[in-house]
Amino acid sequence: MSVLPELHLHYVQACRNLSQPENPFIARVLQEADKNDEISTKGITLKLAGNNHLVPVPRVTDDDLGVLVSVLGQAAFVTGLDLAYNLLTDAGAKTMATFLQENSTLQYLNLMFNDIGTSGAELIAGALHSNQSLVHLRMTGNKIGNQGGMFFASMLKINSTLKKLDLGDCDVGLQCLITTAIALTQNKSLKAINLNRPLLSSKQEETTVHIGRMLRTNSSLVELHLGKHEMKNFGVERLCEALYKNSSLRYLDLSCNNISCDGVKFLGELLKRNQTLEILDLNANRIEDVGAIHLSEALATRNKTLRALSVVSNNITGKGLVALAQSMHSNITLSHIYIWGNEIDRSTCAAFSELIELGRLQQGCTDVAPYEVDGQVLLAELSHGLAKHRYWAPRCAAVAPGAANASLEIVAVSEY
């Protein structure tokens, strides 16, 4: 049974009982939560991230977390907990693991960029063997290593509740990626996973091969992040072969890899036949004009499902960028496109300015905006992109619906 919304009062009492000094940041957030009239009916996410405040705040420590979870133990209306960018260690992970084993209402937990290591990862992953409420977990940036990632891979063989798991920037290795891919051939509940920036010593792309095999049989995964995998054209070809037989994946992130125009040729052929993929992130590769033209031909003639494309920083000149712009005249589905960081010339400025003036491309759906100097149209950069809120989100409110800056705003995976 949940207590009435008196979180701050219970927090003050718990601090006294445990002889723990109050954290003014936690106290203020709980006071704000108590003022929310809908807290007991709609639930609330406590936003205790330590990085997005105009005035520095005392970050949450392991001891602070111990007091906080004692308050939340009976607060069933707290369905989300954002503890990103704080000072939590393996001791805090132990506290959180115990809380997850006992709590039956928490749906969202963000622990990104704390100091949780391998042993903390083992405890949290172990808690999820029995937890049946959590649907979204972010471990991003905690140095759990390959062994820590293995604990989460093993958890995926057992847990049937979790829908979104973020293990990006966690220093996982080859063994973890392969084990995760094998686990996802059995797991039928996970909808999205972030495996960005593993530490790979091999250049043979074994991980990409295993992920491709998984995609042939997995029918539940909607969102897959494979950024910074040192993926080359061979790996892209393996993924495309698998995606011909996959009818569930809607968001594919291949950013910051070594994909050239030859690899994009396989993606272009895939886009002509695939009827599922809606978001494709090729940011920071080297597809050049030839690759951009492969994509534009697929988009202009055959593909009617892709809604967002990022080709930021890909050594594309005006020839390739204009081809992409022209494809949008015949393709009415593609609504978000990001091109900054390429060689933008006058023809590019004119082509994208025309799309925006005609209303074919909304300024909130691209990362460029036209302006005029001495009668010449130029493009300025906008801070939009598919990864804008991957590491940071406004504390005061959720990202505006329809904004071109987060995958969940374009393709819903799980709400919290």
Automatic annotation (TrEMBL):
Keyword terms of this UniProt record: Repeat
InterPro entries assigned: Leu-rich_rpt, LRR-containing_regulator, LRR_dom_sf
Pfam families: LRR_6 (PF13516)
PANTHER family associated with the record: LEUCINE-RICH REPEAT-CONTAINING PROTEIN 34
Name this protein carries in UniProt: LRC34 protein
Organism (species): Urocynchramus pylzowi
